[in-house]
Amino acid sequence: MTRRGRWPLIITFLAPGLALYATFVLSSFAQGVQISFTDWTGLTPSFNYVGLSNYIDLVRDSEWWRALGNNVVLLIFVPVVTLGTALFLASMLARGGSGAMRSTPGTAFYRVLFFFPQVVPVVIIGIMFLYVYASQGGLLQSVLAIVGVDLLDVVPNGPLGNPETILFAIALAAVWSSVGFYMVLFLAGMGQVPRELYEAAALDGAGGFRSFFHVTMPLIWSHIQTALVYLGIGTLDSFAMVAVMANTGVAADFGADVMATLLYRTAFTLNSQFGYASAMGTMMMLASVALALVTFRLTRREQIEY
Asked: pTM value?
């Protein structure tokens, strides 16, 4: 088939998917951007265009900057801990990732075990950790009681009732829920690395530590790059986990407010300010695109073929 003859076939297959994507995704984005320039409350049939007023108010909004700061903390903590733990677990299960030639016995079982939280809905995980962190009868309190430590003496009001700890308590729940997925992703990448490279590294005197950083990581870097982008965009949202775990009716709730939860409250509880909430959504969309571009740019390396 000639080059000219291929294009009609390619367009025929792409057109339905692109049409659906443009109708249900791109048009929604465009409508949200349009609403961000209005004073629409979401409850009236009419609205007025206010130009950049919503964006100017957003820049002056201290709650928005606090929520943005919480997102930045999560963007640093969750990817670093999640991917670091996933790489460690993957290298332990596929010992070839650290220079050995055989996989750890029971690798298939551990792979399923660690991956299991990924198939559990985020809301269920949030509710489960509410019971883990509960200051009365919670799992964490019961474990500490075994060694004679009272949770409330260590963390006043409990992890979810203290403004200084609530954000990190939620972040640990997010790490637990997603680390298994990235461990399996990295295991798949390590399984594609030729064992001859580890044999050559061992002959040159490289131990497990050097083999991991000089053989394994460069050859699975595309997996790590993809994981950073995927996890970063997911962490930038964090709506479900925060909405469930911080919805306890205490003052510490606002210590964990992120952009997505502030957007929700602005649109549906704070006098239904849909125009202002759409401005927040537009900024979140731009932040997601910028995050993906910056991550790909900072982690870009030459392609290594083997």
From this structure: 0.84
Answer whether 283's CB lies under 8 Å from 58's CB.
Answer: yes
Strand partners, 49: 38
Tokens of 226: 């993809």
Q: What is the CA radius of gyration of the chain?
A: 24
Each residue of 38-48: b (16+ CB within 10 Å) or e? bbbeeeeeeee
Are 277 and 263 a contacting pair, CB within 8 Å?
Answer: yes
What residues in the chain have per-residue pLDDT under 70?
A: 1-5, 95-104, 248-254, 270, 301-306
Q: Indicate the domain borders of the chain.
A: 60-298
Q: ∠ at Cα 62 (61, 65), nearest 5°?
A: 95
Q: Pick from 231, 229, 221: which is nearest to 189 by CA?
A: 221
Distance CA 29, CA 276 (A): 15
The neighbour count for residue 30, using CB atoms within 10 Å, is 11
Neighbours of 293 (CB within 10 A): 11
CA angle, corner 233, sides to 229 and 14, nearest 5? 75
Q: Compute φ and ψ for 77, nearest 5 degrees.
A: -75, -55
Find where tokens 């963390």 sit.
Answer: 155
Q: How far apart are CA 248 and CA 303, in angstroms?
A: 48
CATH superfamily, with its number, for domain 60-298: MetI-like (1.10.3720.10)
d(CA 177, CA 82) in angstroms, rounded, equals 9
